[in-house]
Design a protein that fits this description.
This protein is mainly alpha-helical. It has a domain of about 35 residues. The relative contact order is 0.04.
């Protein structure tokens, strides 16, 4: 309580309005630092010290057996997606043919 009283022994005056401030002529303008946007969440610890006898894990692509990437980031087409794409193209061709047949059938009547 004594500290609180000693803090406010002298009068405390409020700041004047910003338009009333006295700004020196030779004062430099300081801009805020450039803030790069960072991703949310806790950062990964990339500087982990490996245990004694621990060897680095070599990750491989299960499709091409390459160590430059893994199966998720494989630049080649996934066989299942390729089959689906071929099936979709075949389905579109069949539906277009059926549409053509249906229109001819309507014209005959």
């Amino acid at each position: 309580m004594e500290t609180y009283r000693s803090t406010y022994e002298e009068p405390v005056y409020p700041f004047p309005e910003p338009c009333d401030w006295e700004i020196p002529a030779n004062m430099m303008v300081v801009k805020p630092p450039i803030m790069d946007t960072c991703q949310a969440g806790k950062p990964r610890n990339r500087t982990r010290i490996p245990s004694q006898g621990e060897e680095p894990i070599v990750r491989r692509c299960s499709r091409r057996d390459s160590t430059t990437h893994n199966a998720t980031t494989c630049p080649g087409l996934v066989p299942n997606k390729q089959k689906r794409l071929e099936k979709l193209v075949r389905h579109q061709v069949v539906t277009q043919k059926e549409k053509g047949k249906g229109q001819k059938g309507l014209k005959r009547r």
